[in-house]
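Entry for the shared binder. Reason: the reviewer on the internal report wants the predicted structure included alongside the sequence.
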Amino acid sequence: MDEELLSALRYELGEVTGWEELCPGVYSLTVQPDPDSAYPCSEYYLVLPDAPISREALALGTALDGIPGLLYAIDPPDEGGWTAILYELCKNQSRHGSPPLEGWSLADAAMEGMELCPTYFGSFPVPPYTPWGWTLRYRVLDNGVYWLETSQCKTALAVCHPVWTTEFSDGIVQAGKKLIHSKADDVELSYLFFEERASCTAIFELLKVRPEWLETGLIRRPELMNAIWKYAPMYAAAYNAQEQAGLHDGLGILLKMMGEDSEPQGSPEHMISLVPDTGTEFIGFWK
């Protein structure tokens, strides 16, 4: 990388502390961000105009004045465009018989991209088979989260690996069912499946980052609370005890760790409570 380009990068981003050319025209950058910079990221991909990158991936980059190329923020990430560059780098390595990028395979890059950049990769595939037979009908709740009807007349929730590994507590993971296929395990494209009744606690944990499910009526909260008490009472009791103790108050816990005179607080609004005269049919469709 020539000094003129490095100088332009320093001006826009901050001190460039490291760089590596991953393939002709594609660089990884490590940056010490300038506190006053509008770009506070510490890691980027830089793609120059002559790089062997597709138009679809180029459309996801950010152009900056004075820099002859496109930037893709990795840490903290942009909207996921960097995964398209990672994928095309891995594909280029594979085509030329070169060693893969450290820590990444072509399949790993695709799985990461399906979660972060579905506009380029497409969504996670709907699982064609479940512990209760073939998938005959499905409803998309979110990317990688599907409500299924199966050939054994079961309704079930299916949650893709990148979602359940980051959003589910250990107890929910253990309660789910998996199909064991070596190829799926290799690329981490495995699903957790839950029968309808058993899905109430999984839905509850997925709601933490999907409040719109309640706002749109996709999930009915009162019925969900009743279902948890009916089908998973030990979960409800343990969760409420943790809420009362303030163990779900992330900000309060952080402030206490920083030495602030603050105690984590629970909230009655966040408790799993029984709602009289309300059923347990918490799914807002197919009923």
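Summary line for the report: The two ends are 61 Å apart (CA to CA).
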